[in-house]
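Re: [ENG-882] Designed sequences occasionally contain unexpected residues at chain ends

Forwarding the minimal case from QA. Structure tokens:
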């Protein structure tokens, strides 16, 4: 059974993210894409526009000295422009470490990602790690 095109788009996005391939990510998103990050820490909030979204991704790598990693676990598709991802993420910041589960609700318009609403299993753990 072939993978749904929206699931394939998101899977390829995760692969590009892991490689640090911002050009590929830019080509997969609308110019007005928004990434919503939960929590109350230095990286939480709404990153509006492709440059802000990619800047956020750069900060994930920068603030963790390149240790931020994401392992895609599963993708769920509704066939109406939504994909839900489940992933594990790990990183180090100084003497802090995180190993947690998260997910993203993707909105896809046409063949591009337009909105990413990030969710985490333990918001307090994320706040502690990123603060």
């Amino acid at each position: 059974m072939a993978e749904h095109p929206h699931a394939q788009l998101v899977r390829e996005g995760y692969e590009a993210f892991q490689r640090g391939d911002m050009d590929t990510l830019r080509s997969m998103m609308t110019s007005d894409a928004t990434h919503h990050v939960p929590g109350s820490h230095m990286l939480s909030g709404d990153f509006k526009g492709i440059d802000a979204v990619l800047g956020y991704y750069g900060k994930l790598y920068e603030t963790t000295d390149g240790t931020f990693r994401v392992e895609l676990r599963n993708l769920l598709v509704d066939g109406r422009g939504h994909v839900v991802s489940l992933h594990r993420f790990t990183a180090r910041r100084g003497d802090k470490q995180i190993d947690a589960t998260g997910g993203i609700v993707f909105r896809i318009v046409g063949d591009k990602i337009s909105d990413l609403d990030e969710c985490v299993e333990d918001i307090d753990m994320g706040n502690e790690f990123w603060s």
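QA comment: On inspection the terminal residues look reasonable. Helices lie at 5-19, 22-28, 50-63, 123-130. Proposing we downgrade this to a documentation issue.
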